[in-house]
Each structure stands twice: as structure tokens, then as C-alpha cells.
């Protein structure tokens, strides 16, 4: 393994999903839904197989999908992008992010981002020769057996200290995996000010944009004054349409930045997912009601999980968005080792979860050692059973 990839072994999701299968446990580790997406979307994909959609789509993605992405940005964010050269279809958000980093970073360029962070970020920055400058997110304080609805927060001083003269790019993720945090208007204003003062490019991962619960509102950093011109917005259809295996993603931004991403992207996958592209286009054009219902349904599942985890005696941070809740395992794992807790959970309770430690850079792992992430994007009966098992945990 090349030195730039040392330390990036197997993703935690592969390991934990394999553990769930091997032990017959309920998998609340890797975040994927166990219910099919909307029939309007699935039917289009079925009908597209066996047609010209089975062959290579155009390099930037099918024009109709790029148009649907632009319409969706206009409808939900009030952002205008030209499907001709400001929208690029990618193999999931993952490829969009990696291609953007490969396209935009010089070796040694610094990437400022919040930690914990989604696990592909550190590897993608490393592949691009960049350097991570993490800013710490702090969980709210919560007692055993209680649910906190307070968000994770960060210190302005930590953010400013992370921005050195080598800083090139601010990598944001809102709503945020694994914390479930949605950046507030005040936080976004500060981030926009810092990005503009330091002349940073902004790459924003918004794959959970529609999975936002009551009381919170998703705002794209690109909508703030002076930000559209320096921002690449990344999202994908996996979460919104319960099709995480389809890997249809996209990136929107000013033409020169999108052209740079396309240059890298065309030599990674060139194109992907022919029959799924028209299907995601149909999904993006569903009425507002669809998007409201997705979040509303998921919110009931969030409440079922966080209540159950609290009843199991854990301190719980209820997320404002996403598929994930976080617990502090110390009341049931006195050594505070979240990895050990996750490895023993199949035996203790027949459930699989993911240690939050994996979302930290190795040198900061201690900050997340006692935290564990549980996914709630599962059917009510499945979550109910998982919660019952956790309450009986040995
Ligand atoms: N970003 C975040 C924050 C994620 O949680 C995920 C995984 N669901 C991705 C990106 C990857 O998205 P995709 O499957 O579209 O590549
Ligand atoms: N994003 C999903 C999660 O955080 C998993 C994606 C993956 O398996 N790479 O659980």
C-alpha cells in the first residue's frame, strides 16, 4: 500500500456490516434504509434497462438529469446553475468530493474541516496530497438515561486557528455525519466570513439535505452573499430516495470549478449508472410533499431510537437531521472504549453500531473514544426490536 494510503485499511462500514451478517445482529451500523424508495423513481429505472440508457451516458451526465439537478437547486435553495456547464453528475457524492479534492489541491495545501468527519474525507485529502486542519465539534453535556436535543458546537477561536496561510479549502458537511448537526445561520455567516477573508474554496457535502427534522432548517453555504462563486455544492440521490446502492451524485458550482472537477472525474469513472440517471431525475422532480414526508417519517424513527437508547441507560444526543444518533457508552462500558463496546454488542445485545472514533484523525481519536453512532433508517419493527434488545443488554 502506498505511503499516502497508510492507515486507511478497511472502512468501518464494511467491517461492521460483515459483523452484523456473521452474527445475525440487527445492523444499526452502516447507514442504509431497509425499505425501497418511491415507486415513481424505481419504475423509471426498471423501464430504462434494456434501452439506450444501458450504454455510456454523456461524460458530464445525462442532460435531463443535469437539468433536474439545476431545477431542484432553484426550487429548494433559490440557487441558479446552468445545466450546460455548472452541473456535473458523479458516481455518488463520494466521487464528487474526491474528484474535487484531486482537481483543486496542490500537495501541501490545507483543508479546514470539522471533526468528527465522514470517513472518506481524510482518505480523499490524503490521496490528493493535502493536509487536514480539523476544527473540533463538541457534543452537548448529557446525563445517563437522558436525551439532549442540543446541537454539537464549535469555538470560533478553534476555527480561526485552523486557518493558516497554507489553507486552500473549507470542507463542510451540513447536515453532518456522524453528529446530526445542521449548521445554523450564525455559524454559516462566520464560516462565510472566514472563507472570504482567507480566500478559501468551499466544498459542501449536503447528502442529508432533505433528512432534516422539525426545529432545524438546512441552508446551503452557497446561498450566503459572496459564496456561490467560491463554492462547490455536492449531493446525491442515495439518502433522499432510499437508493444508496445506485451511486448517482452531483456537484454544482461556477463553470471553471466544475470543469476542474470534471477533468479529474473523467479519469476516475468517466460515467456511471446509465439507467439510474433518468430515475433520479424523476425523483428530483417529485412534488414538495415527497420531500416533507421523507423527513417526517424518519423523525418518528429517530424518536423511537433515541428514547430506547436513553431507556437502556445511555446518555443520548438526538440529531437535528441525518440517519444517526450518538451515545456515550461509559455507563455500560466502564473503560469507555467505544470500539470494544461495538465489537461486543452483537454478543451483548444482537445489535451492531459504529464507534465514533473512526470519524476522527488518528491523533485525535481520544476525543471520540467513548462515543458510538447508531443508525435509525430502519423499519419501525426492526428499530423496536433493536431497542428492546438494547434495554436487555448484558
Ligand atoms: N457524505 C456523507 C456525509 C455521507 O454520510 C455519505 C454516505 N452516505 C456520503 C457522502 C456518500 O454518499 P454517496 O453514497 O452518494 O457516495
Ligand atoms: N454513509 C454511510 C454511513 O455513514 C455509509 C457509506 C459507506 O458504507 N461508505 O453509514
Secondary-structure element order, N to C: HEHHEHEHEEHEHEEHEHHHEEHEEEH
What CATH architecture label of the largest domain applies? 3-Layer(aba) Sandwich
CATH topology of the largest domain: Aspartate Aminotransferase, domain 2
* Individual helix count: 13
CATH superfamily of the largest domain: Type I PLP-dependent aspartate aminotransferase-like (Major domain)
How far apart the termini lie comes to: 40 Å
Q: In CATH, what is the class of the largest domain?
A: Alpha Beta
Rg (C-alpha, Å): 20 Å
| Mean pLDDT over all positions | 97
Q: Find the count of extended strands (DSSP E, 2+ residues).
A: 14
Largest beta-sheet details: 7 strands, mixed
Shape designation: globular
Strand order of the largest sheet: 2-9-8-7-6-3-4
Category from helices, strands and their pairing:
alpha/beta
Spans of at least 5 consecutive residues whose pLDDT stays below 50 are none
Bound compounds: 4'-deoxy-4'-aminopyridoxal-5'-phosphate, glutamine
Specify the helix fraction band. Answer: 25-40%
Number of domains: 2
Domain Aminotransferase class I/classII large: 26-390
EC number: 2.6.1.-
Family: Belongs to the class-I pyridoxal-phosphate-dependent aminotransferase family.
Keywords: Aminotransferase, Pyridoxal phosphate, Transferase
Describe the 3D structure:
The two termini are 40 Å apart. The radius of gyration is 20 Å and the shape is globular. The chain has 394 residues and is of the alpha/beta class. The longest helix is centred in the C-terminal third of the chain and has 24 residues, at 288-311. Strands 2-9-8-7-6-3-4 form a seven-stranded mixed β-sheet, sandwiched between helices. Strands 5-10-11-14-13 form a five-stranded mixed β-sheet. The chain has two domains: 3-37 and 289-391, Aspartate Aminotransferase, domain 1 (Alpha-Beta Complex), CATH 3.90.1150; 39-286, Aspartate Aminotransferase, domain 2 (3-Layer(aba) Sandwich). It contains 13 helices and 14 strands. Bound molecules: 4'-deoxy-4'-aminopyridoxal-5'-phosphate and glutamine (GLN). Residues 31, 92-94, 118, 173, 177, 205, 207, 236, 238, 244, 247, 249 line the site of 4'-deoxy-4'-aminopyridoxal-5'-phosphate.
Amino acid at each position: 500500500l502506498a505511503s499516502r494510503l497508510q492507515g486507511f485499511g478497511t472502512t468501518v462500514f464494511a467491517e461492521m456490516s460483515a459483523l452484523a451478517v456473521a452474527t445475525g445482529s440487527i445492523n444499526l451500523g452502516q447507514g442504509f434504509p431497509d425499505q425501497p424508495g418511491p415507486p415513481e423513481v424505481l419504475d423509471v429505472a426498471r423501464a430504462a434497462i434494456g434501452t439506450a440508457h444501458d450504454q455510456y451516458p454523456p461524460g458530464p451526465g445525462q442532460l435531463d438529469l443535469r437539468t433536474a439537478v439545476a431545477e431542484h437547486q432553484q426550487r429548494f435553495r433559490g440557487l441558479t446553475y446552468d445545466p450546460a456547464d455548472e452541473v456535473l453528475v458523479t458516481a455518488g457524492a463520494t466521487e464528487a468530493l474526491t474528484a474535487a479534492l484531486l482537481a483543486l489541491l496542490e500537495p501541501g495545501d490545507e483543508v479546514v474541516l470539522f471533526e468528527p468527519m465522514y470517513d472518506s474525507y481524510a482518505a480523499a485529502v490524503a490521496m490528493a496530497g493535502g493536509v487536514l486542519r480539523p476544527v473540533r465539534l463538541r457534543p452537548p453535556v448529557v446525563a445517563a438515561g437522558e436525551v439532549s436535543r442540543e446541537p454539537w458546537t464549535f469555538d470560533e477561536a478553534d476555527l480561526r486557528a485552523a486557518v493558516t496561510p497554507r489553507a486552500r479549502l473549507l470542507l463542510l458537511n451540513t447536515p453532518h455525519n456522524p453528529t446530526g448537526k445542521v449548521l445554523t445561520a450564525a455559524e454559516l455567516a462566520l464560516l462565510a466570513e472566514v472563507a472570504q477573508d482567507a480566500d478559501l474554496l468551499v466544498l459542501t457535502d449536503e447528502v442529508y439535505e432533505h433528512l432534516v427534522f422539525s426545529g432545524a432548517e438546512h441552508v446551503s453555504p452557497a446561498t450566503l452573499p459572496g459564496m456561490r462563486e467560491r463554492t462547490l455544492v455536492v449531493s446525491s440521490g442515495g439518502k433522499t430516495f432510499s437508493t444508496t446502492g445506485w451511486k448517482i451524485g452531483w456537484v454544482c458550482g461556477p463553470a471553471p470549478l466544475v470543469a476542474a472537477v470534471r477533468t479529474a472525474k473523467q479519469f476516475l469513472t468517466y460515467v456511471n449508472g446509465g439507467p439510474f440517471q433518468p430515475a433520479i431525475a424523476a425523483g428530483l422532480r417529485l412534488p414538495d410533499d415527497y420531500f416533507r414526508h421523507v423527513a417526517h417519517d424518519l423523525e418518528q424513527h429517530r424518536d423511537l431510537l433515541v428514547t430506547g437508547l436513553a431507556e437502556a441507560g445511555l446518555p443520548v444526543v438526538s440529531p437535528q437531521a441525518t440517519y444517526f444518533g450518538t451515545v456515550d457508552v461509559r455507563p455500560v462500558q466502564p473503560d469507555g472504549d467505544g470500539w470494544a463496546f461495538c465489537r461486543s454488542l452483537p454478543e451483548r445485545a444482537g445489535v451492531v453500531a459504529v464507534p465514533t472514533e473512526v470519524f476522527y484523525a488518528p491523533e485525535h481519536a481520544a476525543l471520540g473514544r467513548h462515543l458510538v453512532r447508531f443508525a435509525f433508517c430502519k423499519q419501525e419493527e426492526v428499530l423496536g426490536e433493536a431497542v428492546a434488545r438494547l434495554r436487555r443488554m448484558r
